[in-house]
Amino acid sequence: MDRLKTLFKAQLISSVEEIKTLVKSHGTRIIDNVQIEQVYGGMRGIQSMIWETSSLDSSEGIRFRGYSIPELRELLPKINGATEPLPEGLFWLMLTGNLPTEEDVKWLSKEWQQRAVLSDTVKELLDHLDVKKTHPMTQFSIAIMAMQSESVFAQEYENGMNKASYWEIMYEDCMNLIAKLPLVAAFIYRKSFYDNQHIAADPDLDWSANFAHMLGKDEPAFKDLMRLYMTIHADHEGGNASAHTVHLVGSTLSDAYLSLAAGMNALAGPLHGLANQEVMDWIYDMIRDLGTPNPSREQIAEYVKTTLSHGVVVPGYGHAVLRKPDPRFLAQKDFAEKHCADDPMVQIVWHVFEEVPPILESLGKVKNPWPNVDAHSGALLEHFGVKEHNFYTVMFGVSRALGVLAQLCWDRALNLPLERPKSMTTEEIKGFLSNSNN
Ligand code: HAX
Q: What is the pTM of this model?
């Protein structure tokens, strides 16, 4: 058993015992009330699922196993000349609850390199897709589905696997899948935008730097951006649409490939991960409509008001849980201040940050007027030459796999059951009201 799996096993044995005792002793305690507006309102705020890898505070933002993003930028190991943390370290932390050593992270980089093989079948399938008509996120989801035939979990289940082994086999699927995702994403990128001219992996690089390399972007600062990007997008507790979808589909004992593909389809929606593409498209529309590449703050404010008057959202702003500027936005802003503060697109993003919140606040209905993670990422990617906006959500997806698949291992380790909340009809709600009024 490898070193990460051994540590995971030790943790899960003690967690399973602890949770059994906790549920036995306190299983009937009430943890939350549900209001009718929450039932109609997308289940906001209802505490009803277990997610071990991270937790989101509305003011403070995300904490991964208790660590904030600024803390992780300090504490996670940095290798290969990196100045940003390696997402390998974050995966280790999410899976085991322990900060890894430099040696652990080096081991995991190598382990993923060894597992990173993309079959000809997947490449041929992708080659058959019309890149002009098939969005990169659709290609990504199709590729993950195409790799499902490699699922060890699905094969072992068919052979009659004992449920005590679910976590072990799920771990193998998750490790294989994470190892392959940068290859898949880079293949889609080079096929869609560089005339099918692919770049071979470099076995000496870490997971993110190798991804940057296979995209064709070898600048050291871009490799560091990728390390930061892959770290901060990895997880955002369990209720967001992509994470929750992976968890829900996984609860039917679908394997990691089926579960992740489903989650990626949720990430591809404009109110979720596609917002990073939408932000850049919106800025380009603004530049075109205003007829200037350097709009003034007053012009930006007017354009925001025009956008709202058309009944569409300002992409990159607002959040279902957060009520402060997203620390993932602030981490990217900090990176941009160090590496590309004079970039005109970065400047626009910062001016938009000054103008949008008071305007959204003035509407009186937006619960969070502040920027989310997607408001900044595109400007940084574009600065380093990744200019194809419709590829951005694929990059988000590669990162998001780290959190949702670490949690999927825990789902099977804890033997969490099939997820099946109760729905209600409006007639039943009316019946409840008339009964409770009598
Ligand atoms: N622009 C305009 N109006 C907005 C808005 C925005 N950025 N954010 C919220 N609102 C509106 C809502 O559309 C809603 O209007 P109606 O009552 O007329 O329907 C009202 O304000 C109340 O919404 P809310 O309670 O503040 O926000 P929700 O929890 O319902 O929605 C969203 C959260 C993220 C979907 C929302 O803020 C939004 O659409 N933002 C723009 C898209 C975006 O950036 N999405 C990415 C979010 C982060 C993420 O998942 N990244 O992957």
A: 0.97
